[in-house]
Amino acid sequence: MKKTVLLLPDQLNAERGALAKFGPKDADILIVDSDRFLISRPWHRQRIFLFYSALAHFVVELGDLGYKVTEIKASTMADGIAQYRSSNTETQIYATEPNSISQQFALEQYGVELIPSDFFLTSRAEFHQWAQSQNALKMENFYRQQRIRLNILMDGREPTGGKWNFDHDNRLPPPKGKGDYPKPRTYDFDDIDKRVWSNLNQRDLELWGDDPDGTWATTRTGARERLLDFIEFGLADFGAYEDAMPINSWSVYHSLLTPYLNIGLLTPQEVIAAAITKYQQSKIPLASIEGFIRQIIGWREYVNGTYWYFGAGYEKQNQLEAKRKLLPLFWDESKTQMNCVGSVVRDVKSRGYAHHIPRLMVLSNLALLAGVEPEEFLAWMTNTFVDAFDWVMVPNVIGMGLHADGGKMMTKPYAAGGSYISKMGQFCGSCKYDPKLRVGDNACPFTTLYWDFLDRHREKFERNHRMRQQFFGLDRLSDLDKLRLRAQEVLTGLESGEI
């Protein structure tokens, strides 16, 4: 029987999954361009461009390898598969396990035979086995087990340097002044990029954000260049400043590799190998290499594992009963006077990206404190970021950012006032709001809403031993009634775009 591999757009690697099993002499390739996918969301322009242009470049690569590729435009994935089968009746369709629960269920319903995914270092079965052995799903415990299992940064059974985690050393604020941050390279449009962008513009799509400007490579060659740039210019200082939020660098010392890891243009194995080689050959601080390795073998694998472990329906969790509509400032930075939020949203609008601290401690923190409905915020994050997929965003938003799962993933909410943003960022000096004030017209909305959040959710969190200090502080406030009134003014102002 003839074999066909259904290629999914986030699995662009001929040496992984179904493509590793079936060479050009064994199977043809099917790609379904689903209208439903494109029109279902208000995508960020750079996110959807990267998605489609990287796929188009990979199709050329598959042709060079000798594969016969059939591309079908259809209203849905199901219609595309049915259309293909109507003219290829004697074929069995295979696919690599998708990275989405809903998509996996759909492909099984369509009769597609799934090949186990090897795009991650940890299989779903391995994570499930680990999770079942734990009382709580602490990422640190998983990370240590990963270090041992994969034998990375280990001296026998002990961690290199005698410590598992150098996170305490990796929390420096931005250096004073402008800093000397690496400037990410940009990429010229080739003919494929131009064709893809022209085709997307001819379709009736609801898009937002700035047009593609060469920030993101759309080929494996470009992805490899970005990896080598990071290893050479970013890795040494990544650890110390991984949480810093300067005003004059959107990328700081971050690798900018997640878009390529998440669509298959890079593999975690090659990223780790390049980083370890640089560490062994150069005088890179152990804290930096450990911090970076933790992101790849720890956090990335942990997030994917929890996504599949928690399963269908987890994305609908709303244990804090947050019901506020998505704030207008998330679409338009002019709808806020908060310098930190406006700056981050402007960066996101420009290139569909912000590193993990602006995502967590500015955007998600604001949504948490303001009580934004989790599914609405999740949709915005998924539509917007160039590295966003369900497995990435569902745990990061529902579990970590909004604590909407009631603590299944994190033992306490990542809630913070203006003092954290003031310490780790450079936004407050030119902002009309003072992070030290919690009441009054010039009080920082983050500071006001932080205390109001604790007040509103006292019953849920006051018995949490990790939050005793916060509630001790809340009980010492002498202006709680004024703070409650100011919080309502802030929330009303956020909804109207006047705060």
Element-level helix/strand string: EHEHEHEHEHEHHEEHEHHHHHHHHHHHHH
Q: How large is the share of residues in beta strands?
A: 5-15%
What CATH architecture of the largest domain do you see? Orthogonal Bundle
CATH topology description of the largest domain: DNA Cyclobutane Dipyrimidine Photolyase, subunit A, domain 3
Helix vs. strand class: alpha/beta
Low-confidence stretches: none
Q: Major sheet: size, sense and barrel closure?
A: 5 strands, parallel
Average pLDDT rating: 96
Q: Provide the gyration radius in Å.
A: 23 Å
Task: Give an overview in words.
- The chain is an alpha/beta fold.
- It folds into 3 domains: 2-115, Rossmann fold (3-Layer(aba) Sandwich), CATH 3.40.50.620; 124-197 and 213-310, Serine Threonine Protein Phosphatase 5, Tetratricopeptide repeat; 315-496, DNA Cyclobutane Dipyrimidine Photolyase, subunit A, domain 3.
- Helix content is 49%, strand content 7%.
- It has 21 helices and 9 strands.
- A 5-stranded parallel beta sheet has the order 4-2-1-5-6, sandwiched between helices.
- The longest helix has 25 residues, at 286-310.
- It is globular, with a radius of gyration of 23 Å.
- The termini are far apart.
- The model has no long low-confidence stretch (mean pLDDT 96).
Short descriptors:
Rossmann fold; 9 strands; alpha/beta; 499 residues; two-stranded parallel ribbon; Serine Threonine Protein Phosphatase 5, Tetratricopeptide repeat; 21 helices; DNA Cyclobutane Dipyrimidine Photolyase, subunit A, domain 3; 5-stranded parallel sheet
